[in-house]
Write a structure and sequence with these properties.
Elements: E1 2-4, E2 10-13, E3 22-25, E4 29-33, E5 39-43, H1 47-63, E6 72-77, E7 89-100, E8 103-110, E9 118-121, H2 129-133, E10 143-148, E11 170-180, E12 214-219
Antiparallel strand pairs: 1-2, 3-4, 4-5, 5-12, 6-10, 7-8, 7-9, 7-11, 10-11
Pfam families: FKBP_C
Region (Disordered): 184-245
Keywords: Isomerase, Rotamase
Amino acid sequence: ILLYISQQQTVTVARIHVNFELTVRPNNYSTFYDDQRQNWSIMFESEKAAVEFNKQVCIAKCNSTSSLDAVLSQDLIVTEGPAVEVGDSLEVAYTGWLFQNHVLGQVFDSTANKDKLLRLKLGSGKVIKGWEDGMLGMKKGGKRLLIVPPACAVGSEGVIGWTQATDSILVFEVEVRRVKFARDSGSDGHSVSSRDSAAPSPIPGADNLSADPLVSPPTSMPFKPGEPALRTKSNSLSEQLTINT
């Protein structure tokens, strides 16, 4: 990441590597530490611009290593509220791509053209383990990009799953639309937290950043540790809309 105060004068440089941390905050802010361990905060003029930047940082992290052996998880949008845990039931909008030639390639599955969202219970093993674990800690309305290496995307016997091209890196953009928390199991069985399901499709747009971001100088904002390492044993994902209704 290169930040400039003018066209010729660089403010700071941050080398992106597989363990690089970009912390996404509400209101279109993202923060990171540069190579001198100074913290920088970038404010974008639109949610779309912030999401695209955050997504490209995650893709750059993937491209920084010749052998990806764990799931990369990057928040694109963060929201307020309780985080989802194992046992919670979710309704999720998602798009899945093959990672080809170091960029997002062919879309192999999406909820965009389907009548219902994907329904799943975290920890149930109905989707690939790397995909499911990567959603832990999300909040209703939040969005993440997950880059899943082949070792975390293979199928297992007895589990319905997407089994083609199992040697491919898979990329998912996931958005939590509704949540039913296990700790609220005394409810009537309906979503205890819901949002209009007519929200925009998670399929990313091809537009470039709409405006130059505003950059603030180093702050004393505390470092937020990254997501914990994810286990590599996994199951496979496929058409869950009919399986989990």
